[in-house]
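Researcher: Here's the sequence for the chain we discussed earlier.
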Amino acid sequence: MAGPSSYAVRMARLSAQIFGEVVHPTDTKSMKVVRLFQEPPLAKRKEVYDWYPLHNIYYSLTQKLRFMGLFRDEHEDFKEEMKRLRKLRGKGAPKKGEGKRASKKK
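Model: Thanks. This is the structure I predict for it:
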């Protein structure tokens, strides 16, 4: 007895392509690879990308609380103190039009 007609084979392949199935018959090793590629990538899984907290939201909240005096961030206090001390020593960036090149022209 003859196998399926060429039309039936082509329709089966087209159906497999449309519905995302394997077009040609494959062995179990190849099917394992197909199953791996059918799964969503690791970076798209919710348990992976929700692992860490939303740092930008927490940062903005702590900045607002710090401004109101309800939260103390010692590292930010230290950075502000260092910036203030640099300004006292005259280490800040010059204002526009007061740099080295501007002073040469005068």
